[in-house]
């Protein structure tokens, strides 16, 4: 005697597909929430804090942090941040960014700036406040470096401005920073300027000092969010 074989009905299949869709949607939403949180953490606790530090130092001292020997670097002051790593020095004394910020402006940078990199930093707890790890949608986990420098172009007259320069920022994160500051992700205008993206390290061959020279000018619109490229971003200052 033959037994009838019972399959899934269209309703049952539809219910299963709907459940799978809900699960996938929940997972994707969870990832978006996590990414949004980490970008906010990076922006408010690290990048934005360095911008605030540079501006506060200028307001209190009347000079630029990292500009000349009186402000944590070497040589004479010329009104422009000299482009050195944001936690240079040993954490104390006049030859350290952290030291002069505390001595001249009463700011404890080790408490002000947040970092998730704990390895050989200048702070007493080895926190490396010049670096912060972020995860890009296509670039994966990378380390972004903050440099107190300036950029200049070959325009006439030459455009030179102080900026906290962030090197190695995933394109989608750079775009999010720009949108947070300026309302739209346009790297050609506003506080946040895009200094170019690269498939290697986001510096486009520029020196580690943070000076942006040559024919490529800070102020590009393509953050290259789909290829895994890294970007150099300038958080410009008003002085």
Question: What features would you highlight for this structure?
Answer:
single chain, 239 residues, alpha+beta, six-stranded antiparallel β-sheet, 4 helices, 32% helix
Structural class: alpha+beta
Largest sheet: 6 strands, antiparallel
What is the average of the pLDDT values? 77
Number of domains: 1
The level of helicity is 25-40%
Query: What portion of residues belong to β-strands?
Result: 15-25%
Q: Taking Cα atoms only, what radius of gyration do you get, to the nearest Å? A: 23 Å
Instruction: Output the number of helix runs.
Output: 4
Report the span from N to C terminus: 92 Å
SSE ordering: HEHHEEEHEE
Question: What gross morphology would you assign?
Answer: elongated
Low-confidence stretches: 202-216
Number of strands: 6
Quick synopsis:
The protein is an alpha+beta fold and 239 residues long. It contains 4 helices and 6 strands; from the N terminus they run αβααβββαββ. It has one domain.
Task: Explain how this protein is built.
This protein is an alpha+beta fold and 239 residues long. It has one domain (30-236). It has helices at residues 10-61, 97-105, 109-112, 171-182; strands spanning 84-85, 131-136, 140-152, 160-170, 192-198, 230-236. A hairpin with a 3-residue loop joins strand 2 (131-136) and strand 3. The radius of gyration is 23 Å and the shape is elongated.
